[in-house]
Amino acid sequence: MKNTITSIILFSLMFIFVLYSHNMLINICDDINEKCLQIETAINQKDWDKAYSLAVDVKDNVEKHSLSISVYINHTDINNLSNEVLKLTQYTKVRDNAESLASVHLVKYTSDAIKELQDITIKNIF
């Protein structure tokens, strides 16, 4: 009986951790996408200071949550996202329009890909 109770408790804890991690990951990806849209708008309006500030916010957000997220998903996805966000901060700092837009699109694409991998589909299971 003791083993059964221990197993049930461990399963419950694992299930709670997975739900918490999943929700946190989805919220972070949504936040990144929202800020990327704001960055894109700022770049198109030539508001480079706002674009740089938002890019730094995204970088800080990714760095703050990267350890806890990498426990739940593949760390290479987080590394790719982190590297591209670092590029984005530098491109907006030097006011490179083409590279900034390309980088912000890649950050959005990577964030969407990470979020899509969390959906329960046949594609993701196999």
Question: Could you explain the architecture of this structure?
Answer:
This protein is 88% helix and 0% strand. The chain starts with a helix and ends with a helix. The protein is mainly alpha-helical and 126 residues long. The chain has helices at 2-44, 48-72, 75-93, 97-116, 122-125. The longest helix is centred in the first third of the chain and has 43 residues, at 2-44.
Helix content range: over 70%
Average the pLDDT over all residues and give the rounded result.
Answer: 90
Q: What fraction of residues sit in β-strands?
A: under 5%
Largest sheet, strands/sense/barrel? none
Q: Judging from the principal axes of the Cα atoms, what is the shape?
A: elongated
- Which class do the helix and strand fractions yield? mainly alpha
Secondary structure tally: strands? 0
First and last CA, distance: 36 Å
What's the SSE pattern?
HHHHH
Question: Helix segment count?
Answer: 5
Low-confidence segments, given as residue ranges, are: none
Radius of gyration: 18 Å
Give a concise summary.
This protein is 88% helix and 0% strand. It is mainly α and 126 residues long.
What characteristics describe this protein?
single chain, 126 residues, mainly alpha, 5 helices, 88% helix, elongated
